[in-house]
């Protein structure tokens, strides 16, 4: 991004990406009427309230639910633009509303039962972009919902290649034990319900790899959350 564009972005008034009204990047009216994803079980692809993995599908996974908030096509530009440093508070606008939906889906009564953990990005991508988008996401969800978050619990121990450049089979083997849980934080996450977050997901394999890295005797549950998914199965209602 050119310096001049960067400065323009900072001083320009916020405009809604969908209706151009000033004051928000995502205005309350547009959020209300925005298309949502059909709630389904990721394993069998059949409808399931709150994206819960069915009991009979459970054996394949160690997680309770895989939640996707928005259809990728509809929110693509907003997500891409939020990756520029000057525009990262786009996500703040999104989360100002979306956290209520998350609380409803997960049935959260007590925020202190939960911890939000962003999926770490590999070093090379982070050095190119300066910050991890999932960290920003975690921060904003935490700010609106009162749920604690931490960016250092999950460690990437292997720098996997950028997922989007690989075939599906390559992606699966590429992620083999790529994550570790930092022992320093064992007490921090003890008996907590974990919410793993990422911005855009393609395969969910990353979430499942991270889930597999936890000691399941010490935590209560894991739910996974993505802002959007570019796979066909998560289509709009
Ligand atoms: Zn609008
Ligand atoms: Zn199922």
Defining key terms:
237 residues, alpha/beta, Rossmann fold, five-stranded parallel β-sheet, two-stranded antiparallel ribbon, 9 helices, 35% helix, binds zinc ion
Descriptive overview:
The protein has 237 residues and is an alpha/beta fold. It has one domain: Rossmann fold. It is 35% helix and 16% strand. The chain has nine helices and seven strands. It has helices spanning 3-11, 28-33, 72-82, 90-106, 123-129, 133-145, 168-174, 186-189, 205-212, and strands spanning 65-71, 114-118, 148-149, 154-156, 179-181, 193-201, 221-229. The strands form two sheets. The protein has a five-stranded parallel beta sheet with strand order 1-7-6-2-3, with helices on both faces. Helix 4 crosses helix 6. The radius of gyration is 18 Å and the shape is globular. The structure holds zinc ion (2 copies). The site of one zinc ion has 6 residues, from loops. Residues 41, 43-44, 46, 54, 57 line the site of one zinc ion.
């Amino acid at each position: 991004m050119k310096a001049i564009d960067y400065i323009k972005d900072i001083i320009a008034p916020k405009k809604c990406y969908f209706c151009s009204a000033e004051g928000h990047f995502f205005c309350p009216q547009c959020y209300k009427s925005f298309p949502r994803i059909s709630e389904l079980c990721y394993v069998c692809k059949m409808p399931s309230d709150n994206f819960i993995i069915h009991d009979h599908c459970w054996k394949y996974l160690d997680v309770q639910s895989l939640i996707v908030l928005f259809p990728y096509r509809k929110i693509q530009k907003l997500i891409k633009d939020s990756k520029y440093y000057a525009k990262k508070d786009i996500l703040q606008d999104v989360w100002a509303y979306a956290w209520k939906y998350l609380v409803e889906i997960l049935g959260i009564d007590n925020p202190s039962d939960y911890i939000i953990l962003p999926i770490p990005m590999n070093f090379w991508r982070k050095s190119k972009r300066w910050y991890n988008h999932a960290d920003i996401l975690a921060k904003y969800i935490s700010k609106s919902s009162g749920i604690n978050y931490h960016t250092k619990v999950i460690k990437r121990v292997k720098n996997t290649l950028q997922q989007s450049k690989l075939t599906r089979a390559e992606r699966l083997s590429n992620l083999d034990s790529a994550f570790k849980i930092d022992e320093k934080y064992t007490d921090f996450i003890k008996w907590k319900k974990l919410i793993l977050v990422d911005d855009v997901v393609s395969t969910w394999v990353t979430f499942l790899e991270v889930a597999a890295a936890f000691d399941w005797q010490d935590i209560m549950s894991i739910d996974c959350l993505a802002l959007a998914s570019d796979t066909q199965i998560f289509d709009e209602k």
